[in-house]
Protein: Adenine specific DNA methylase Mod
Amino acid sequence: MSEDGSLWITIDDNEAHYLKVLCDEVFGRANFIANAIWQKKYAPQNDAKWLSDSHDHLLIFAKAKTIWRPNLLPRSAEMDSLYKNIDNDQRGLWMSDNMSVKSYSAATDYPITTPSGRIVNPPASRCWAFSKEKLAELVSDNRIWFGAKGDGVPRIKRFLNEVQSGVVSKTIWLRDDVGDNQDAKKEVKKFNEISVFDTPKPERLIQKIFQLATNPNDLVLDSFAGSGTTGAVAQKMGRRWIMIELGEHCHTHIIPRLQKVIDGEDQGGISKAVNWQGGGGFRYYKLAPSLLQQDRWGNWVVNREYNAEMLAEAICKLEGFSYAPSDAHYWQHGFSTETDFIYATTQTLNAEQLQALSDEVGEGRTLLVCCSAFRAPAERFPNLTLKKIPRMVLQKCEWGHDDYSLNVENLPQAKPAVPEAVSAEPPSRKKVAADSISQGGLFDEGEA
Structure:
């Protein structure tokens, strides 16, 4: 997450408070922004055993609260309609506001004489917001309203052209403003009438989040894409987006929905509010199978779903090389610099094969060789670095997950459309000597 990024999580009462504590540990309590309440249902559940739940929580955290600031929400016509100009003030529309405050100060607890001669004191346990001197300035500038007859309780005039261009969001989000589950189900039915999620999110809810947390062309990540609402709203609002979904929802919900959005056929949700006419596009990537799997004896072996090309690309990714197989040299599967290359093979390499590799690489280049085993001392080949598969992979894998195996936690953040810089110096790699010349097969039994 970028330093000015934020995290927004919708969750119900069952887990909200546990999640808050967990997020406090990850982000730090100082980076907690708010717990907004979203009214997800309108009608009460009369068959509820205890209370009818009508809301979900929206936990909001910032990567760095000292940096992150929410945007203001657009002002509505209803808000502006409260401003009048009943005294024809040259500064335009205005509304009157309470001039007393709760924080008591003897210096601002004094009587005010209205134009009609009436004496007005502050309400009980309160005082005026201004000193006598400041009040005199405001009265002289026609910024205090005493009512049409000049005998009302004094109020401060707030001019429309002086207020900020937007409004600060409240922490209670009502269905009239952001929609509810029923609205969301209607939106989903437009592209999948059979399978409707139990608790989908309406587009107006996601729109409000984006209004507060993003600007046009910002990047949005949804790790649990569901029915694809996040991508649909992001596309309509001009945000870049990444969605992740491990279920079949990609094919049954997300892709059909986004195709209608791109084609301009989806005129539901926020389409009319943002004048969406279609456009743009998206790429669809399928998660590769796990690189390693256990054989029947519990040994880690390379997944047989990986062919030689897939294995070479995966090893390049793990070792920080750019995957670029050469047509001229079979041993160039990728590179880190102009003189540093990588070669991945499922073979066991003997001394003759390693010597031939070393001779072909030459003195001016270096080669990282990843193989199932090697049968010669690594020190004999100064321009080769030897690593065993799957041992080298095991050290970089993250276990206990059935959906991925590559640890990407510490990968650097990539800037869009900018190629990674190539280091001028090859990365230093310590020579790895063979622990034993006897090693099991790289793949499960039955390999060729």
